[in-house]
Recover the amino acids of this structure.
């Protein structure tokens, strides 16, 4: 079973994402900001990270850059999931090491398709 | 909807488009036709069918269109596109080296995601296609959906369905709240309104045909007829792609499955090369 860390300051988004990912047979952990997420990765490196951009304490892009510096930090497949939907943000995310990018609002189908594209599971 | 009304609409759809609507699909009929009824100012589907019975040609066309339009994805199911990119395209480049041209037909182009996915693959391979003339023809029965395909404008939801982010950034531009495909890709696809039950000869000869998730709507004799007609438009070493739930087995002997390549079929007719020479077979 693969693991996914859900990083979002919105409790509702975390809940929706958890429900979809559980259906896709992922075990999930959650963090409310980049710092919590980084601590979580140091303790337990996940296979995937679903990552919001704008969060208090530490934002998503700073977390991603810090994650990629950690030992084993190149392992997780990182999928951004944010309302930032302009080309500049998307480029910046890719350059920082994001594997995929979801523009909110999203649905179960988009999340599934994006996870399949980056090889996190076989699409049915 | 009254059973006799359902039967009337089902019969009309069968005649006009080949679409077979079984009783368990009545929810589909109702959900697709309610917007048409509203647009025309009918109180409900009873009034809509009553008007259809008066032989309202424009309404019949609208109803057919509403029922034959399907949601589409970029790189739908991924595998067939990978197979095209990794097996068929290199074979085309090798076997068509003398004339430097080939033609691809998307037989149910819908809102353009499939032909544009193929255009992206060709664009990504452009270093190997210098000086080649490649054609992608997208046909659909629905005029309205082809207008959308031609426009190449997609909602944020649509552009995220199946399209890897790197390709989205590379080939799409944000235009207000929509995403517009690169004009160079748009120019690679030629759209034509075409009913698969019509004579296909006017479309010319193709090297590759994508006909995915269309046959499932047809009954057995219609499937056989369409497949037989398609085989005549396809090069002897050409390939046909069908949807995951579709097959030629027991329906047409004009095609044969390519072993190990799900959904990919080789031409099976006198003079066609043995399986090993089909474009769909990987070089050893």
């Amino acid at each position: 079973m693969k693991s996914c860390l859900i990083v979002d300051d919105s409790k509702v988004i975390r809940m929706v994402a958890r429900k979809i990912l559980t259906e896709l047979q992922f075990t999930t952990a959650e963090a409310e900001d980049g710092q919590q997420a980084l601590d979580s990765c140091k303790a337990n490196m996940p296979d995937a990270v679903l990552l919001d951009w704008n969060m208090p304490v530490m934002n998503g892009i700073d977390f991603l850059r810090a994650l990629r510096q950690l030992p084993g930090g190149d392992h997780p497949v990182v999928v951004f999931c944010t309302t930032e939907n302009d080309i500049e943000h998307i480029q910046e995310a890719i350059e920082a090491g994001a594997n995929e990018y979801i523009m909110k609002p999203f649905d179960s189908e988009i999340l599934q398709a994006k996870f399949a594209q980056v090889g996190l599971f076989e699409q049915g | 909807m009254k059973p006799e009304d359902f039967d009337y609409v089902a019969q009309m759809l069968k005649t006009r488009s080949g679409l077979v609507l079984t009783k368990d699909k009545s929810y589909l009929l109702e959900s697709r036709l309610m917007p048409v009824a509203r647009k025309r100012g009918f109180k409900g589907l009873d009034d809509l069918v009553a008007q259809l019975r008066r032989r309202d040609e424009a309404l019949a066309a609208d109803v057919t269109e509403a029922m034959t339009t399907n949601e589409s994805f970029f790189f739908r199911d991924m595998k067939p596109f990978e197979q095209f990119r990794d097996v068929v395209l290199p074979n085309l480049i090798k076997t068509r080296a003398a004339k430097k041209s080939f033609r691809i037909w998307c037989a149910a182009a819908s809102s353009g995601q499939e032909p544009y996915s193929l255009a992206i693959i060709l664009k990504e391979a452009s270093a190997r296609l210098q000086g080649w003339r490649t054609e992608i023809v997208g046909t659909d029965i629905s005029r309205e959906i082809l207008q959308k395909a031609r426009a190449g404008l997609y909602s944020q939801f649509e552009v995220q369905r199946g399209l890897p982010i790197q390709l989205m950034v590379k080939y799409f531009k944000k235009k207000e709240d929509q995403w517009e495909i690169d004009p160079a890709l748009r120019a690679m696809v030629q759209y034509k309104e075409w009913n698969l039950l019509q004579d296909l000869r006017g479309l010319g000869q193709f090297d590759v045909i994508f006909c995915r998730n269309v046959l499932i709507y047809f009954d057995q004799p219609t499937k056989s007829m369409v497949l037989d007609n398609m085989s005549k438009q396809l090069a002897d070493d050409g390939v046909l792609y069908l949807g995951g739930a579709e097959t030629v087995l027991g329906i047409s002997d004009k095609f044969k499955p390519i072993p190990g390549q799900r959904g990919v079929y080789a031409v099976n007719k006198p003079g066609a090369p043995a399986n090993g020479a089909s474009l769909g077979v990987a070089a050893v």
